[in-house]
Structures are given as structure tokens and as C-alpha cells.
Amino acid sequence: MGLAKGDGRTYKEQMSQPSLMDRLAILADAAKYDASCASSGTAKRTSKGGKGIGSTEGMGICHAYAPDGRCISLLKILLTNHCVFDCHYCINRKSSNVRRAKFTPQEVADLTIAFYKRNYVEGLFLSSGIVKNSSHTMEQLIETARILREEHDFRGYIHLKTIPEAEAEMVRRAGLYADRVSINVELPTVAGLTRLAPDKDVGVIEGAMGDLKSAIIEAKDARKRFKSAPRFAPAGQSTQMIVGADDASDATIVGKASALYDRFRLRRVYYSAFSPIPDASAVLPLQRPPLIREHRLYQSDWLMRFYGFAPGEVQQAADDAGMLPLDIDPKLAWALKFRDRFPVDVNRAPKEALLRVPGLGTRAVGAILAARRQRRLRLEDVAKLTVSVAKIRPFIVAADWRPILLTDRADLKALVAPKRTEQLELFAA
Q1: Which end of the chain is more exposed for a tag (fewer CB within 10 A), N or C?
Q2: Residue 233 within a domain
Q3: SMART domains given for it (predicted)?
Q4: Separation of alpha carbons 127 and 80, rounded Å
């Protein structure tokens, strides 16, 4: 790429920059630790009819995830990895000895359009380190989205990671261009945030999340009254918590996530397993937590969002130290602790009880409810709706099946637990 015209940099500054591909490698790698980049819930926009570029439906954003839950469908980069903050757990903290790079808003917009046209990516996830100050950085993020929307008429997906310390009006402006806006709470406890991110304040973070919630509600109300009212972050807001950087238990994390959902109407809470970084602070753990712990937290999140579990019930699946078991999923762990709730009759039980049966997902429960209106279900009928009927048998009653004493067996966990396999890490060397 040649020297950019009118970008405000001197000839010497432009010549000293790494090449475009070098910067892309640096800033894409720096962004990989951010998990909150899924695209569900956005407004439907399309470029059919010859107007605009991109789409959020059909062949637009796909929900592709890596084995550890990270979305890999977007161009996911930082505007810069320069940062004036010194969060202990962050590879881009100001005291870190990493190679630095930065993009201009125009360069990120050009990259997004070029990659989209080549079918490499189907949207943009943009975050940034804090350069100069929070408001200046937020202005650069917004300008990137503005160029895409207004100059390129880009109608694909945009997710902006906003900066809570920036001026409130800037965060609101971001929602006018982005499908989703997210503000990271970083850590599950105030004590952890104070110790590991001394430049951040929980009151400022939650205040910005509250302002964003209000702006989303106001925009939805306006859209009901006036069709011409602008869309504002139609895919809502999300957040992310780092798991394993402090001593917060899974029960604490589950409770924090539930409170965030209730207070700020979040679309998602994402979890990111802490990863050791070069030249790490002495206050950080030497080893990363197992990625399966992150997976168990995602499963607990689904139990609360789609299976009717209260936060306290999910926390009951944890051990005395508040940690969810790693060898079995939290739904099975809860069922093993509360065996008096089972077996459940698949021909008579209400939906709420069926959703608690280990091995039965929401689709399977829906199919059972529909099928039993026609006839009484046998065990083989249920087996057709699930991956493993062996896991389900101790917890259900069917027309031709009753577990008798199976549910009370001391070795029940060994009978229903999946065989242990080694989990591959996405970013392992």
C-alpha cells in the first residue's frame, strides 16, 4: 500500500510504519483473546436490488465457532495495540514489551471491504487499545464504522468494542453505526478488577453499560412510533469476563453473569479463559485454566437462558469450593445431586421438568411434546431424538421403560459420564 494521502501523518511517520500485512498480523493476533464477537440478533439488512454492499442474512454472517467457543467468522482486529492502561492480564498493556502497530480508520474500512469482496470475512469486529485517551480512541472506532456505512454503504455486520471511560455521547454514536456494541466488565469481582486493572473502575464500566441499555430501549421505543427513527445497536450489547486470572469461583462468575443479564438486558455474556502472557506480572497465575472450564461456564449460561434454571440452581451443581465439575456438564451434575427429581415421565411431565433431564436439549423436548400428543412414547422413540439414550435412561420413564433402582445406584455417575478426552487448545503453541 502506498502512502496514505491526507491522513495527518508526516512522511517520516508513514515510512516508519510496518507494512500493511505486518500490521494486520500484529493487530489480528492481538485481538484473538477477545471472545465476544458473535453476531446473533442483528437487524436484517441486505444488498439485494443492487444497493449497498454486504448482508447480515442469507450468505452474510455465519455462526461459526472454534471448539472453545470463539467466533471466527469476522475480520477481528484492533485499531491499535498501543495502550496507556496497564492491566496486568493484557498483552497490550503499556508496560508490555510487544511490537506495536496501528491502523487508520480508512485502512480498516478498506481492509474490511477488500476482504468481504473476496469472501474472506463477512463482517467486522473492531476493538482497540487506548491511545492518547479514551475519547480520542473511541472517535477513531466510530470513524471507521462511519466510513463503512456512509462512504461504502456497507450493510454487513459491525461489532464495536466500546470504551467505558469515553464520553457518554460517543458510546451512543457508536450504536448508530454498529449492529452490536459491547463493553467488557473484564473480571467477575470488584476486588479482582482493582488488583489486576488499576486504571479501570467498576462504577464507570457499569455506568456506561447502563447508559447503553437506556439508549437501546429509547431507540426501540422510537422505532415503534416512527418508522424513520434510526436503528441503534439492533443486536444489543454484550460483555466479557476473563476466567482464571483471579481466584473467583465458578459460582461467583455465574452469579455475576446473572446479575449482568438482569441489570443491563445483555444479549450475551462471554467468557475468556485467561492466557499467560510474556513478561507477566507476579500477581498473575503461572498457568492458564483448562479451556473446559470456560466451556462449562458457557453451558451454565445456556441453562439459565434456555432451560429455566435459576442462578442458584446452577450454583448448586458446583462443589464446596464453588467450582463446576470439569468431567461432566453442569446439567448432569445438578441431576446427580438432586436425584429425587427423577425419573421424569416423558409422556406426562411438563416442559419445565423435561428440560432438566440430562441429554435432552430444547429441540428434543419440543419434539417429545409434539409427538406425545399423537401416541405414548416408548424408549426407542426417545432414542431417535437424542445422541445418547444411555445417558437419558436413568432419568426418564417411558411407556415400556422404568429405571427401577438405576437412578439410585452409587456408580450412576460412572455410567452416564462421557468418556474423558483431551481437549485441544486453539492457541496452543
Answers
A1: C
A2: yes
A3: Elp3
A4: 8
CB 314 within 8 A of CB 298: no
Q: Are residues 189 and 239 in the same domain?
A: yes
User: Given this model, what pLDDT does residue 61 score?
Assistant: 37
- What length is written for the chain? 429
Looking at 221, 256, 289, the residue that finishes a domain is 289
pLDDT of amino acid 327: 93
Q: What is the dihedral of CA 39, 89, 167, 213, to 10 degrees?
A: 40
Question: Does position 179 have pLDDT exceeding 80, yes or no?
Answer: yes
The single-letter DSSP state of residue 149 is I
- CA-to-CA distance for 358 and 381, rounded, in angstroms? 17
Burial class of residue 398 in the structure, from the number of CB atoms within 10 Å of its CB (0-12 exposed, 13-18 middle, 19+ buried): buried
pLDDT in tens, 19-63: 888 888 888 777 776 766 555 555 555 555 555 655 544 333 334
Name every residue whose Cβ is closer than 8 Å to that of residue 92 and which is 6 or more positions away in sequence.
30, 78, 81, 82, 83, 98, 129
Domain residues for 22? 14-289
Look up residue 156 and give its three cell numbers.
Answer: 454487513
Radius of gyration of the chain (CA): 24
Number of domains in the chain: 2
Q: Is residue 295 part of a domain?
A: no
pLDDT in tens, 375-418: 999 999 999 988 888 889 999 999 999 998 777 787 788 888 88
Cβ-proximal residues to 393 (8 Å cutoff; 6+ apart), any chain: 379, 401, 403, 406
- Dihedrals φ, ψ of 402, to 5°? -140, 130
* CATH label of the domain that carries residue 86: 3.20.20.70
- Helices marked H in 56-152 — which ranges? 105-117, 134-146
Range of weakest confidence among 22-31, 67-76, 187-196, 242-251 = 67-76
Q: Report the alpha-carbon distance of residue 318 to residue 21 in Å, rounded.
A: 46
* Coarse DSSP helix, strand, coil percentages of the chain, rounded to the nearest 5 percent: 40, 10, 50
Q: What is the tens place of the pLDDT at every residue in 293-336?
A: 999 999 999 999 999 999 999 999 999 999 999 999 999 999 99
